[in-house]
Amino acid sequence: MQDIVNTEQAQAWNGPEGVHWARYQDRWNAVNEGFNEPLLDAAAITGADRILDLGCGSGQTTRLAALRAPRGHALGLDLSEPMLAEARARAEREGVANASFTQGDAQAHPFEAAAFDAAISRYGVMFYADPVAAFANVGRALRPGGRLAFVCPADAALNDWVAAMASLREFLPVGDFGRPGLPGMFSLASPDRIREVLAAAGFTGVTVQRTQAYGTWGSGAKDAADFLLGTGPGRHLMEQAEADARERARRALTDHLRGHETAAGTVRLRSTCWLVTADRPAAASASA
Asked: Which pairing describes strands 116-122 and 99-103: parallel, antiparallel, or unpaired?
């Protein structure tokens, strides 16, 4: 893998975190797939479009984009080879022949200029070391007039999974978990920050719309608690606590999640995101 500048992220997503997401791709899709249709609609994909999926993970959104462009092509880009292996296997099993996947860092990947009509991302653009450089690189990969559409977490307090983890402060060192502006998941939680980054990267016509969806986190409270504590943030917090505190945290989280069980017994949690669109100017400058 060449042209990698986000080395810390590359190590994480090719280590335990990437393996976790690849292994549980269907569970993560059940958590996040409520944003698929709004995202793809916002990208305004047509039948012959060439689409770039940023941080594609195990490729669900890439495959869906490819199906919307049967005479076009969708390329999924991600740092994580474990997830990309799952993406390739799933595309082959589903017969989605116009989707392909490559390992790379969007901030530095040598995209062909103006190679894509649209770029999309479902929760894949928050981890760039230099977001302006990353989005500028993506902008160069879009044709003049090309469209960018992505979703990223917003309003940590309006994300039920964050509230669930924050409820464990008595047992785990939760700290500033979920605070906007910190590097990582909530780095783009401020709409002003999104507009600032995209404008500096050369995009115009930026829109930022708050969108909510409910996802399925488990088949019951205990199952959902085990899943949440097995995620990267959950593992990080649990590793810093003693065995007794970990067990109490697990029990407390299970009790908290019982309040989100449906009549069918599944745990449904609300996620809140920003649905962002922007355009590469139709009359791109020579330096863009």
From this structure: unpaired
